[in-house]
Amino acid sequence: MGALLFSALAVPGVAGPATDGTAVALPDWLEPRAQSVVDLVSQIEERALRGAIVSFDDGEGLVIYESGSRVGSTVTVTTTLFPRVTYPAWLAPQPLTAFGCLGQYPRYDHMGSVAPASHLRLYAADGTEVTHEVDYMYISAMGTRLPQYNSSMYLRYTEIAYGPGKTFPMPPVEPNGLAIPSNSGCRLEIPGRDYVTLTGVFTLEISEAVHASILGTQTGTFRSYVGVGDVGIVQPLMDQMRAAYPDRHERIALEIPAGTNYFLLRYPAMPVDPYTDRSSLAGFPNADRPSSGSYRLEDSDWRLSADMTISGVFPLKAVWRDADQAPQASYLPVVGPVTRLAVPEYVVPAGVQYHPCFTQGSCSAAILETIYKQVMSLEIVYLSVAPADGAVYATELRLAGPIWTTGQRSAPIILEAAEPELHAIRVDLDQLVYVPVVFNMTPPCRTYPCGWFDSLGRMLGYLAAQ
Prior knowledge:
By secondary structure, the chain is mostly beta strands. Helices cover 5% and strands 32% of the residues.
């Protein structure tokens, strides 16, 4: 069978991709993204998911996986939310609680993750349902679009606002909860309340997107980061640590089983939030709330990957270099093969209680010593993941670098036919043709890495090389 031409045009905008099983036209490349741990519910044992950081952002806090189940196409995920509080001028003097959901924002050079549409029921610490208190929602619409901005920018994809005075009204609170569209990160806001913790129960109607299995696990320990870099409101503590101790950023040698193509890092939350309050006029109301930190992969030439800040299901054989190490790159280069994990860059280790001296630079020698000696544990879960039966679409993987612009395009991708297993592929905007595609046989792209995507923009697999 002859070669087929993928559509090379996809214009970013508010309209989302097809979600009804029809084929979609992909751009000639898409940015890689992690799979959400939600996609692994019922695929691997719960123990490997419990405590995973599903999403994190400085202004929205943490979403932590507690439990999940699947009955037919219904997936239920229970999470613990650690929101953030601010005091915006438009609401003064009342507080505003903000929290995230199942998708992850693709900030700077970080990979995001795309979550399917869901319904959310929200509960306060005393068990009272507070779903109806959510008045605003902001959705990152990564989908199957190209980014709007390069990796030097914080907000890189279309964001859609819902609520009073916004572009769209809030979705309804239906019998099974607040309707949340498919997203690559979201911010939900409750005016007039300051919730320190919440329980979020998400319900999704989705078929199994991947086949996943655990090939091995590796445990390790690590200690806090001491060194250069912007650490926000705890910079005074870092200055004290660097004056008292040598710099350190520990590495763990990877023990990768044969057949592994993804990994999942389970690690504790950091007991401080260094960044949310850096421009706050209300003191440091979030300083003692748990947060995440950056971890990275590294190859034998000491080249570091882009930061990862969640317990996503990340590619292990296709890894992109940190933008700080490629400041003149239109597209970030691929590094590897990776051999080490650069552990989470925590200024304050898990297990150390928050102290106001962290922001004042007045910590005692005893507190500094406790921070320096405290040991944390992590677990690397090595996975084999492949797309499940269903419509998936292939395109080249690229991660936009610091000098990428929206005017840069590459040639359309040519797909070569493989052995029989039928999947719909868009040839022209008004025509469908079915061609055979098999994931473990003839590779689908001429340029690598190459990713498999569904119509929502979830990356369900990839090929690193022919």
